[in-house]
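Let us practice reading a record.
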Amino acid sequence: TVWGTNGNCTIPTTATGIVTNATAVNPTAPSYVTFFPADAPRPTASNLNVVAGSPPTPNQVTVGLSADGKVSTYNNGGTLDLIVDIVGYYQAAVVDVPTTTTLPAPKQFTQYFNGADAYPVGANIVQTSQNCVRIQGPFLTATLPLDLPTGAIVDLVQVRYLDQTAGTLRFNLAYAEPGITTSEVNLMPSALDSIGTNTTDFHKSDQFTMIAHPPAGSTAQYYITALSLTGTGTATSVAFCGAFVTYTLP
């Protein structure tokens, strides 16, 4: 039995193996000695080899313990005295396994313009049918705030627009911290400098990914701005209709 107090050693019941200095003394015949866990089959390898009358023969032996904390020894021939000095023991490591965290499922929503959504309201934009707006004049903007819950992290935006004849809009996805005007926020330009022509597909969409986010815990407002790049005429022919948004909540 290894567990417990043995001479000057106390081996805890958490020990699963020991390191020993084993010495064979007074062998009466050629022999070998094998150590093994008491509840395991005896292996064929030897840990000590002796001949009759040889002087004390030591060797370091590492051996596992049985489920109840014991080792067995086997002497192949004759008799001998066996001294076992325990010099250390093994026990199972305590591993701190991180708890697996399930990431929140992405949420989605679609937001369209209505008369009160877009700003600036006035001469710059013209409300059309189908919840869309046209920008009244070149190099002017219409902005759509996104009604997201506090702390939302935007992952993907699909801009919805109506392109009936030739025209060009540039879209930006941005956020504004409370008290900061929209002219001071981080603008993330999309690659949608030029939109197709001569289509009648309502809610045609192109998408882009948010490349920056407000700091954690922020109450910032996300929004999309459409800039008319049409250089002639009184209004762009491309109507900005809204956005389909994918976001997560921490």
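A brief commentary: The first strand starts at residue 4 and ends at 6.
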